[in-house]
């Protein structure tokens, strides 16, 4: 596993296990399998309704809590609702703290929401705080009003939408670029793209592994999701090869600035990234 260093000094695995669209009834088993395979970073959210399953798997794994990096996201807006939501998430997951909590998406009162996160960070309930789906202007507003700079912006990123300009903006402020849907939600044209298939054959890995390695070599945190143990293991097994500079350039040339989900529309304000 490779790690990234966050701007508050904490280190986090560059590759984690995503739980989006894993049902609450399946989450505990899926996360338990991920931890068994070697994942040490788990991503959940209030919106996913599976924080309890994540927490149960963590508790029953027997792994030292300090070896794990657990992320959740607030779906609330405003100070009071978010303050209550943080405590509810901790109770739901049965955890004393989260390693990272993000504002899941921009809403009406992001400053109030971030104030609640910052207070929880200062109180030790959260080891780090950040945002998700925020563009440059929205990030700028947060940084203009708070001393605590977000450690992460989790945004849609895959080889078809590489967020080049926002990636540089984040780097300038020492904010880690993290991606949701790093494999493009399983889009067939990605897994069968001739350039990716050629590189997969060259490195004796799958096209999915090539995509994940490309992103991690750019220092982008990735949280691929799968409930298939074979795919889960393969997604984790990407650190035994590295793309050459020439091959990195080949993948970079695949960027179409194309959103597979079309959401959220606010992110298009920074296009062409």
TrEMBL record:
A Pfam match: Aldo_ket_red
**From which domain of life does this come?**
Bacteria
Gene3D superfamilies xrefs? NADP-dependent oxidoreductase domain
- Swiss-Prot/TrEMBL site (Lowers pKa of active site Tyr) positions: 73
Per UniProt, the keywords (alphabetical) are: NADP, Oxidoreductase
Please give the family membership noted in the entry. Answer: Belongs to the aldo/keto reductase family.
What is the name of the protein in this document? Answer: Aldo/keto reductase
Residues bound to substrate are 104
UniProt source species: Limosilactobacillus fermentum
Which residues belong to any copy of the NADP-dependent oxidoreductase domain? 16-255
């Amino acid at each position: 596993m490779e790690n990234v260093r966050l701007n508050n000094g904490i280190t986090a695995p560059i590759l984690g296990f995503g739980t989006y669209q894993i049902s609450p009834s399946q989450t505990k088993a899926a996360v338990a399998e991920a931890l068994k395979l070697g994942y040490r970073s788990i991503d959940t959210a209030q919106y996913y309704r599976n924080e309890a399953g994540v927490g149960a798997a963590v508790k029953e794994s027997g792994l030292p809590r300090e070896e794990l990096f657990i992320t959740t996201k607030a779906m609330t807006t405003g100070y009071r609702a978010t303050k209550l939501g943080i405590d509810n998430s901790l109770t739901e997951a049965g955890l004393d703290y989260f390693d990272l909590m993000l504002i899941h998406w921009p809403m009406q009162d992001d400053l109030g929401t971030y104030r609640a996160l910052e207070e929880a960070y200062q109180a030790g309930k959260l080891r780090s705080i950040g945002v998700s789906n925020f563009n440059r202007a929205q990030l700028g507003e947060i940084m203009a009003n708070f001393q605590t700079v977000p450690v992460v912006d989790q945004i849609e990123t895959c080889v078809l939408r590489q967020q080049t300009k926002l990636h540089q903006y984040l780097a300038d402020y020492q904010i880690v670029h993290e991606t949701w849907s790093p494999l493009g939600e399983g889009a067939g044209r990605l897994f069968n793209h001739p350039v990716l298939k050629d590189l997969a054959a060259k490195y004796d890995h799958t096209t999915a592994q090539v995509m994940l390695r490309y992103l991690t070599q750019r220092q982008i945190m990735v949280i691929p999701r799968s409930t298939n143990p074979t795919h889960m293991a393969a997604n984790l097994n990407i650190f035994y090869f590295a793309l050459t500079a020439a091959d990195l350039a080949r993948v970079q040339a695949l960027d179409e600035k194309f959103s597979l989900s079309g959401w959220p529309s606010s992110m298009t304000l920074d296009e062409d990234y």
